[in-house]
Design brief:
Blueprint: E1 3-9, E2 13-20, E3 25-32, H1 35-44, E4 51-56, H2 63-71, E5 76-79, H3 81-89, H4 99-112, E6 117-118, H5 123-156, H6 167-175, H7 182-218, H8 231-241, H9 250-257, E7 262-263, E8 272-273, H10 280-295, H11 299-309, H12 314-333, H13 348-366
Parallel strand pairs: 1-4, 4-5
Antiparallel strand pairs: 1-2, 2-3, 5-6, 7-8
Length: 367
């Protein structure tokens, strides 16, 4: 008997409910996320060897549990939070949101919905994701450090603040300032501390960038062959996409990246509007690639200018370019080329009609 186990994950606890293919509740329980609770949860469902774990939000709060289950050889699928909310809305209970109701809704979605994303355990992709996230954290830390350093330098040298300052430029400014009062000396000391932190953060960012580039190349990925796609963008795309085979075609992939416009036509008016759905991190990565292509002399820049000449605004032209880059990324990730639609075949009778019509016209001309 195939059993579907709905999982409502949290940081310190997890609530599960097991149902069969007829949505009959078999068991339920609440367990802690430590080693003892995890072992007790597996023992609780050991009676059903043919089981499928349905985890809500496997890219968020459910990621640690999903990765542990995958490492132990369990079959795990991802249930989007929107589908679980819809199932809970149309279920009895007046849409009450409790852990038990959430686990039941996730299990029901797993039973009723085909084609849910099957998760796979990849050690390299998981390491790639963690390193990419760490570099993003360091980048935010660098911005905060630069802002604090800018504030202190603007107080030390009024009217001489530089907009985009580097560590070397900040070092030169500090070397030229010799305050005599206590407040000025304290300000200069704090600026020197911020400068030291900035140098250390930039060193870590540079090392992580080099490591990410080596990992992307080691995987044999050709994403960096695309203009505007560097090691950081390529690493985040690989980590977020995972197995590209879960997308049926480039259109489904564009819908996931948020680059497919939504149809908003009405009557004789045909128009499309911007889509706010999809993975916003992936959309941001594609925006970085598009902005880089527009800035440099690339085919994307030519395409962008052609869209502007057709009467589109800069934002509309940028959206068109992002969709074009999304299709290119899908082709680079796909192991096999996407099949092209074959033109419909015409019947023999359809092919003979023009010849018969010409014969009749010739006969009518002779008459």
């Amino acid at each position: 008997m195939k059993v579907f186990i709905g999982v409502d994950p949290h940081k310190l606890s997890v609530t599960i409910e097991a149902v069969n293919d007829r949505e009959t509740v078999l068991t339920a329980g609440r367990f802690s996320t430590n080693n003892a609770g995890y072992a007790a949860m597996l023992k609780h469902v050991a009676a059903w060897p043919e089981r499928v774990w349905a985890v809500e939000g496997s890219n968020g709060a459910g990621r640690p549990l999903a990765q542990r289950l995958l490492a132990d050889g369990e079959h795990v699928v991802d249930v989007p939070a929107k589908l679980a909310a819809r199932a809970r809305l149309f279920d009895t209970g007046h849409n009450r949101k409790t852990d038990a109701h959430d686990a039941h809704a996730v299990a029901v979605v797993a039973v009723r919905t085909g084609g849910l994303r099957v998760l796979s355990y990849g050690v390299e992709l998981e390491a790639l994701r963690m390193l990419a996230d760490r570099r993003e954290e360091l980048t935010r830390q660098r911005v905060q450090t630069v802002n604090r350093l800018q504030r202190l330098l603007s107080e030390l040298t009024p009217g001489k603040a530089k907009k985009d300052i580097t560590a070397l430029q900040a070092k030169g400014i500090l070397a030229s300032v010799r305050p005599r009062d206590l407040a000025g000396k304290t300000r200069r000391r704090l600026a020197a501390e911020q400068l030291t932190e900035l140098v250390a953060v930039e060193k870590k960012i540079k090392a992580l960038t080099k490591e990410l580039k080596e990992m992307v190349i080691a995987r044999g990925s050709t994403l960096m062959d695309l203009p505007g796609v560097g090691p950081i963008v390529a690493a985040k795309i690989l980590a977020d996409v995972g197995d590209v085979a879960r997308f049926a075609d480039r259109n489904r992939f564009a819908s996931w990246t948020g680059t497919a416009p939504l149809d908003a036509s009405s009557g004789e008016q045909v128009r499309h509007r911007l889509s706010r759905a999809g993975n916003r991190k992936m959309n941001h990565m594609l925006h970085i690639a598009a902005a880089t292509q527009v800035r440099l002399d690339t085919p994307g820049r030519t395409y962008f200018r052609r869209k502007l000449a057709e009467g589109k605004t800069r934002m509309e032209a940028m959206r068109c370019l992002k969709r074009r880059i999304s299709d290119a990324v899908y082709r680079q990730l796909s192991p096999t080329p996407e099949p092209q639609p074959t033109p419909p075949r015409t019947s023999r009778r359809t092919r003979r009609r023009p010849r018969l019509a010409r014969a009749r016209e010739g006969t009518a001309g002779r008459l």
